[in-house]
# Entry
Amino acid sequence: MHDDLTKQDIEKMQAELDYRQKELMPELIEEVKRTRAFGDLSENFEYKEAKRAKNRNGSRIRYLENMIKSARIIDSDSADDEVGLYDKVEIYIPEDDETQIIQVVTTIRTDPLKGLISRESPFGRSVLGKKVGDKFTVQVSDSYSYEAVIKSITKCEDDGSAPILQY
# Structure
């Protein structure tokens, strides 16, 4: 299984991986050694917390390595008049009489509260490739769907501001 990621996603993950391996891991190992010297390990909270932090970092390193290794690089380009990755899209939802501005992003950069919608979500799949004025249906589940209309598209590039998800 693989994730569809952009070159910038890979670069951000590689930068985090390098930091965790080269800077953070030696610090965490040293902290484990330092707190181990405090004495009785069964009651040594500092030691347990240092080991927990070291293990979390190791887990994140393995996650990033697997993501980078199994990723499929995708292009974020789209036609000038179509919704593509990272474009800001103004959407009107008649059912709620509400307008929203969203950006469709890769799965590791989503944050729905900030309008960053995964390209693999029902909404993301529905909106990609649409043009201004297009009306489309978002199929959320077998029993629920809703309609939306593209009001405007502002072409954007990935500015790198959306962080990589922690898990």
